[in-house]
Amino acid sequence: MAPPAQSQRSPSPSQPSGKSELSDLKLQLRKFAGSRAPGVDDSKRELFKKVISYMTIGIDVSSLFGEMVMCSATSDIVLKKMCYLYVGNYAKVNPDLALLTINFLQRDCHDQDPMIRGLALRSLCSLRVANLVEYLVGPLGSGLKDSNSYVRMVAVIGVLKLYHISASTCIDADFPSMLKHLMLNDSDTQVVANCLSALQEIWSAEASRSEEAPREREALISKPVIYYLLNRIKEFSEWAQCLVLELITKYVPSDSSEIFDIMNLLEDRLQHANGAVVLATVKVFLQLTLSMTDVHQQVYERIKAPLLTLVSSGSPEQSYAVLSHLHLLVMRAPYVFSSDYKHFYCQYNEPSYVKRLKLEMLTAVANESNTYEIVTELCEYAANVDIPIARESIRAVGKIALQQYDVNAIVDRLLQFLEMDKDYVTADALVLVKDLLRKYPQWSHDCIAVVGNISSKNVQEPKAKAALIWMLGEYSQDMQDAPYILESLIENWDEEHSAEVRLHLLTAVMKCFFKRPPETQSALGAALAAGVADFHQDVHDRALFYHRILRYNVSVAERVVNPPKQAVSVFADTQSSEIKDRIFEEFNSLSVLYQKPSYMFIDKEHRGPPEFADELGNLSIGEAEDNVVPSQRVEENDKDLLLTTAEKEETRGSSNNGSAYNVPYDSAASVFASQTQIESAISNPTTAGHSQQASFGIDDLLGLGMPAVPDAPPSPPQLKLNAKAALDPSTFQQKWRQLPVALSQELSLSPQAIAALTAPQALLRHMQSHSIHCIASGGQSPNFKFFFFAQKYKESSNYLVECIINTSSAKAQVKIKADDQSTSQAFSTLFESALSKFGIP
């Protein structure tokens, strides 16, 4: 076998050219070890710098461990620091070598220089080697009693490190009681803060293992401790003040006078220059006055000015953090901030994430007195060069209109948006006009007059096109060209890729048929024929349902599809009140920025909705045992966490009995009535025969030429897959984001398949034998998630599959995306066939 080709690249001057250079370093370190000649320390520094630089770029220099330890016998603090850094890096990987460092670190713990004592103690506790904990107890005990505050501060943190290495050793040495004594008696506030932080962490971890822990945790928030910390709060650093203030939020005062005493003591903290201290103080004020309604409202007035000052005086990042907290407060008490709406106007040089949050704030503070000014400002943003901000500003105008503030002026503004020569403005305005008409039907005449002038060819976004189609169907009696516009859209059925638009088109043409039958009969026939043959299951099912109910009874169909509607009074909120209260309880934390409780993004069982890149990155590539996705996370992703808004609409069938359409509430009685009549007809052959005979007229009217009972969709041509298909994860990820969901279905698995899933690798091998390859997988019982891909034989057309299997219900939720959607049904058949054979010998 030929030797590997040598790299032509010249070695970097900062990297060793081979083992010879490490050997030279070792020889030079040995030469200087123990030497006290003049200038030796300078030479050692150069060598140490070189070793540390190699270590930093990932080169293994652990072979120099002994020599580095021997050279540590010096009074040069810079050399000491570099040596400690080296030792701390390699001690955990080489526990046997770490034993060599114990002597010199213990010796340095008794050095005359407090800086060296502290550094040595920190390095000793950073070794994190379990079999060396016996050597930590003595130095830590001495460090806690050291005369220098820096050494005591390091020793306190060292106790916490010892606890994480060996909790029993830490508790047996009675270090927690020593920390408590130090916290209440030490003159240095940083030592006190470190003691408080360490004790909170230790007793929180001990809560489930020790009966003493709950009592000690209660002792930390007792009145003497709280008052002691409050009286010294001005001496603490900013970080320590935040720690103390967070502790105070857990304290329960005995009466209202004590609450006022604490608030008076902390009043000046609201003027602090550090935003974290201000927010921590705000949290204390809010928590203490929750049970005092009048005072609580006064607190909002008091904290308003400091928070608004922080928004305008800090960096964009700080402004965003403070604005997020202000947004939470505005949602709870919008009237308090209604007069300060100008603080939330967007500045030209602000980042887009700050502008977006300010738009939400303007929407929240809008009321009868300021709506005109706010809407005028928002309309200016609609012409912004930043298109996402322009879109958000239009949506904000619509949200204000739905709050019933000055609707007349707002409707005029939205109609002006429809006349703007910008596609994205028209698209968002159409969606908002649809929502307005649902809430204010009395505005239909003015709105429809403008909407009727919009060409459907100029509307490309699925949401906007669906909104336009909804209006064409709902108000077809007022729009002269509605049947002909719908007919032109049906003629281009195959070119429409969005299932959401096709679903709306079916419903709109049905509504139009009931209002203007002669003009719509041919369009309805073409729409039902195209819908029945559609590859998307929801579209196919809806078209089939419409056809069958029309054949049964036209009047029943009208009551189901186009019942009398009531105006929508309130649109659903995106967050429940319980979630908002939970976020408020976690004020001054990441929960406010993420707008979700901490358990959703911290606990393993409740991780928040990731982007597909994160999800794919967390799954193992081709392996199911190594990296697993928690079961609840899989269940959440199964619902909608990996989907865009459009995809959620397309795949909502899994939660609506196979249909992405929700029958309006007003027509529920009609639905049940018609369902009873249909079932009665089926059970009574005479009636059924009569209905069947009567249906011939409607079949002829629609021009479908269908038999009495429509046949199933034609079987797709045989599909052959490439057995050697290849697709890299990044391409898969990109395609998954771009392609719409072609099919979404639920499959049943055999008991043999569920039994075989105890080893998920078996499924990967089985599917690969059918030319369907796995690119990522993960999960834990009872939920397993797999991402598959396949390629069409002799073509570059790809099929992407997300398959979530629940072993307890023996069901598989399957979503399929395809480059060539016309063959997705054929691929679905192949995938279902392959999956059904899994586990069968």
From TrEMBL:
MF (Gene Ontology): clathrin binding
Principal cellular location given in the protein's record: membrane
Keyword Protein transport: yes
Cellular component terms per the entry's GO annotation: clathrin adaptor complex; endomembrane system
Keywords from the named record: Membrane, Protein transport, Transport
SUPFAM superfamilies reported in the protein's UniProt record: ARM repeat, Subdomain of clathrin and coatomer appendage domain
Region (Disordered): 1-22
Boundaries of every Beta-adaptin appendage C-terminal subdomain domain copy: 719-836
Subcellular locations according to the entry: Endomembrane system
Keyword Protein transport: yes
Record's compositionally biased regions (Low complexity): 1-17
UniProt-listed PANTHER family: ADAPTOR COMPLEX SUBUNIT BETA FAMILY MEMBER
Similarity section: Belongs to the adaptor complexes large subunit family.
Functional note: Subunit of clathrin-associated adaptor protein complex that plays a role in protein sorting in the late-Golgi/trans-Golgi network (TGN) and/or endosomes. The AP complexes mediate both the recruitment of clathrin to membranes and the recognition of sorting signals within the cytosolic tails of transmembrane cargo molecules.
Protein name per its UniProtKB record: Beta-adaptin-like protein
Species for this entry: Hibiscus syriacus
Top-level taxonomy: Eukaryota, Viridiplantae, Streptophyta, Embryophyta, Tracheophyta
